[in-house]
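Weekly structure sync, notes
Attendees: PL (lead), two postdocs, one rotation student
Agenda item 3: pending single-chain targets
PL asked that the sequence for the first pending target be pasted directly into the notes so everyone works from the same version. It is reproduced below exactly as submitted, 206 residues in total.
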Amino acid sequence: MFKRFFDAENPLMRALAIAADLLILNLFTLVCCLPVLTAGASLSALCRCVQQIVRGEDGYLFRGFFRAFRENLLRGGLLGLLFLLAGGLIWLDYRLAAALVPPLRFTAAALGVLVLAAALYAFPLQARYENPLRTTLKNALFLTVACFPRTAGMVICTLALWLIALHFFNYALPVLLMFGFSLPCYVCALLYNEIFDRMEKDNDGL
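Predicted structure, written out during the meeting:
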C-alpha cells in the first residue's frame, strides 16, 4: 500500500511534484524579474518550462529555466517592455477617464483585457518558436480572437487569482510569492497547448 502511495505514477504524487516544480519556477521568475528590463525574458523562460511540464517532457528545471532565460534575453526582454509600456499607457488612460469622462473607463478596461490576453499568448509563443517580434505579436493577436473560448478561460483564471490575492493581500502574499506567476501560467498552458499542437500537426506553423 505504501509503495503504491509513493509511486511516481500516483496522481497525488504527480500533483505534488508539479506543485513543487511550480513553486521553484515561480521563485526563479520573481528573482529574474527584479531588473525590470529582464522581466520579459523571465516570463518567456517560465512559459517554456511550464510547457515542458504540461507536455510531460523530462528536464532539469534549474538548467532549463536559465538556458531559456539567456536565449530569450533580447527578444523576450523587448516583448516585456512593449507590454509594460502598453499596460502603463492604458492605466494612465483609465485614470484620466475616471477623472474627466468616467464612461470611457470601460473602454480603457476593455483595452487592458485585450492586452493581457495577447500577452498570455505572446510569451508562450516567444518561448516555443523562433520568430521575429512582429510575427509573435501578430500571432498572439490572431490567437486571442480566433480561440476566444480558451482566451476567455486564460484571462479569467489569471485575473481571478490576482484580483482575489490583491483583495486579501495580507493573507495572499505568501501564495503570490509561491505561485503568483507559475500557477496562472500552468493553467494557461493546459488551455493553449492543444492549439499549438494542432497547428504544428497541420504544418501551418506560427
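Discussion points:
- The radius of gyration is 18 Å.
- DSSP finds ten helices and no strands in the chain.
Action: rotation student to compare against the earlier draft before next sync.
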